Amino acid sequence: MMELEASSSSRRASLGTIAAVTAAFVLCYWNVLTKLVFDWAHDDNYSHGFLIVPIALYFVWERRARLAAARIRPHWFGLVVVIGSLGLLVAGTLGAELFVSRVSIIFLIAGAVLFAAGFETLRILSLPIAFLLLMVPPPAIIFNQIAFPLQLLASRFGEATLQAFSIPVLREGNVITLANTTLEVAEACSGIRSLVSLLTLGIVYGYFADRRPAVRLVIALSTVPIAIVANGIRVAGTGIAAHYYGAQAAEGFFHSFSGWIVFVAAFALLYLLTTVMIRLLPSRGDSPAAGSPPLTSELAR
Fold it and tell me: What span, in angstroms and rounded, lies between the C-alpha atoms of 216 and 287?
């Protein structure tokens, strides 16, 4: 009876500790978290952020057997990481640098895991924790350094495609001038939105498609050129439609719907590339003639 009471008391103490830590985390990061969710809800470039945490939690749940079998060896260095993360939070708050404050969340989680459970548990949870980085919008200076070159790439691709169709076109920077209208490849049309979304989707799809880290990395990296080419095709298609049907073809419903169509086509291309790559590079025990990529839950062993 005394053992049952001790066990119940220990469980209550553990739950109390978890509740206290969670409350302290929310208290410290409340402003950071609310602004982060606000950006997800109001900036289409980062709307995928709502999916990141649930997917990361699924990755944790999938590792539950390995976590249960892991040896718990708390390490003092985790406390150093936690303190450093709180320092980043303070620095980011005082300097009005949202990126630093938000990234400190990921470091804080990693440090807490290391301090409470040790390196083995941190290694098991390394992918879910690192995956959380995708929920953090990059600093504006980095975003602009990526977005503007993508605008120019899409503009050049569109110009070359229009010329291939013998459509008169003049390009100046990211502005494409046709005989009957002028198109501007704005920041929203740079393709960075589909690039980030496709990269996130590529990481998740690669995780389920193949267990080899090298193959997963190739799948994730291949989303970059696929997204760039797909957006270039969208710009070119918009220019062709505008040439034959007028400026209204480049606005409103057609413009929005074409974005979805191109994104679906980009994912289809990613799926095709992954299927071909896995057939050409079968893992041990798999036949080269095997069917589509195995979507199993026994991954990341």
Answer: 19
CB 79 within 8 A of CB 111: yes
DSSP 251: S
* 188 burial type by CB count under 10 A (0-12 exposed, 13-18 middle, 19+ buried): middle
pTM to 2 decimal places: 0.79
49-62 and 192-209 helices, crossing angle to 10°? 10
Give the type of residue at 286.
D
Place of tokens 């978890």: 18
d(CA 19, CA 25): 10
Residue 40 phi, psi dihedral angles, 5° rounding: -60, -40
Q: Mind listing the pLDDT tens digit for each residue in 235-287? A: 888 888 887 877 776 666 566 667 788 888 889 999 999 999 888 888 765 54
CA 69 to chain centre: 30
How far from the centroid of its chain's Cα atoms is residue 91's Cα?
25
Residue 35 tokens read as 């602004």
Please choose, from the candidates 141, 117, 126, the residue with its C-alpha nearest in 3D space to the C-alpha of residue 68. Answer: 117
CB of 32 closer than 8 Å to CB of 98: yes
The tokens describing 264, both together, are 């679906």
Question: What strands, in cross-sheet order, belong to the sheet with 170-172?
Answer: 170-172, 175-177, 182-184
